[in-house]
Specification:
alpha+beta; Ribonuclease Rh, Chain A; Trefoil (Acidic Fibroblast Growth Factor, subunit A); ten-stranded antiparallel β-sheet; five-stranded antiparallel β-sheet; disordered N terminus
């Protein structure tokens, strides 16, 4: 049985498949992602290594101006009674993640893809994006969509063009159109999953509602959301003022992403790379959209912090070197000045006077890129000052450079990375 091309878009396509051994099909007895006992090489039917799908949601309450009316607030922050979409991220089974995987898939215009008439039903999908997928920057919604697909969608192998060619082997479309189809499906699947995870209603059922003065405990919020998520614990995060601002729902996936068979996964099941929440145990605030606490004003200067990068021995905690302007390190000398710049859509960019920093294809730190599109996004722990990448805060080096010699520093992505020295990268403001 072949898969009719007209049921591929926006349908649960694999529920109709049989176990016939033909290349056009996905087997119906595939295990959940990250739960396979043997290697599965069919990347159209089984997502790997990004087998943990994280659906992240924002609660943004701050508007760009004080005193906006409800319609203005909804336009900027989404419905008053709804969290909004941040993205759908394919984390690896070990808790790390890939990002910006294939530049040949990158997009720079969502509106055109949704309105060019190449595929049906996309204008309605665009309306959903416009309402529910909101940036924290005025006028930046489409920039966020582009960012999310390029950073995360380009890493989902189920959506690569060769899979669409396989399902539609009698339809001779250009590869460009199959790439468009993958973009559309990424957004559609994300919106569908978001609509099933109604955070606002789940909290409201337990009398947890936005308030200017009431506070909640971390366990109250986690328990309410766990009940609505099949008994699986979710991850909640807060801003520096202990105001709830983000929820993460983890899933495994059965079959292709296009089948949308997401299986809830507890944050406790992520192992040693569990995320760390900034929410305190008590006194968590959940402000209404449009509310400005006394003394707070709309966000202003976002040029970032200025500082230096020091190399710390993980075992001793001692500083053993400094990072120079090109991203290499030395055991002696003067450190270069770096800017730690908050990215508009999460995480941080690093920049020296030579340019932006990137993690290269061989996992080394290099800082000489002029275009921000080439900049990697780093994590930053404001309490320790440590810099991380792809959910890892461990760095490695094969040698300690002596005298005036320079060394390379590489991000450690998994346990198999074999470095003589395990290090931390620490940002120190100046």
């Amino acid at each position: 049985m072949r898969i009719p091309k007209d049921i591929l878009l926006f349908k649960n396509i694999f529920s109709v498949l049989t176990s016939e051994a033909e290349n056009s099909y996905c087997p119906i007895d595939l295990p959940n992602t990250c739960r396979n006992a043997t290697e599965i090489t069919d990347s159209c039917c089984f997502e790997y290594p990004g087998g943990v799908f994280l659906q992240s949601q924002f609660w943004n309450y701050k508007t760009s101006k004080i005193g906006m009316n409800e319609s203005e607030i909804v336009k900027e922050l989404g419905p008053m009674d709804s969290f909004t979409i941040h993205g759908l991220w394919p984390d690896n089974c070990d808790g790390s993640y890939e990002q910006f995987c294939r530049r040949d898939l990158f997009i720079d215009d969502v509106y055109y893809i949704m309105h060019n008439g190449n595929f049906p039903n996309t204008k309605d999908l665009y309306d959903d994006l416009d309402l529910l997928w909101k940036s924290n920057i005025v006028g930046g919604d489409e920039s966020l969509w582009i960012h999310e697909f390029n950073k995360h969608g380009s890493c989902i192998k189920n959506l690569y063009s060769q899979c669409y060619e396989r399902w539609n082997e009698n339809d001779e479309k250009e590869e460009k159109l199959w790439k468009e189809r993958g973009v559309i499906d990424y957004f559609n699947v994300t919106v569908n999953l978001f609509k099933k995870l109604d955070t606002y209603s789940a909290l409201k059922q337990h009398n947890i509602v936005p308030s200017e003065d009431k506070t909640y405990t971390k366990s109250e919020i986690e328990n309410a959301l766990q009940e609505s998520f099949g008994g699986k614990k979710v991850f909640i995060n807060c801003d520096r003022n202990n105001v709830i601002n983000e929820i993460w729902y983890y899933h495994l996936l059965k079959g292709s992403m296009l089948n949308e068979d997401f299986q809830p996964l507890s944050v406790n099941e992520l192992g040693k790379k569990m995320p760390s929440s900034r929410c305190r145990e008590e006194g968590i605030k959940y402000y209404p959209k449009g509310y400005f606490p006394k003394g707070q004003i709309p966000d202003g200067d976002k040029r970032g912090q200025r500082g230096v990068l020091r190399i710390i021995n993980k075992n001793t905690g001692n500083s053993i070197g400094i990072v120079i302007k090109d991203g290499h390190w030395m055991s002696k000398g003067s450190p270069a000045n770096y800017q730690l710049i908050k990215s508009p859509f999460g995480n941080y960019n690093l920049r020296s006077r030579l340019g932006y920093c990137q993690i290269t294809t061989n996992n080394e730190l290099a800082c000489h890129y002029k275009n921000i599109q080439q900049a990697s996004q780093f994590e930053y722990d404001s309490e320790t000052g440590f810099i991380g990448y792809s959910n890892s805060y461990l760095w490695g080096s094969s040698d300690i450079p002596k005298n005036t010699k320079k060394g390379t520093i590489s991000i450690i992505k998994n346990d198999e990375d074999d470095f003589k020295y395990v290090l931390r990268l620490k940002f120190i403001s100046i």
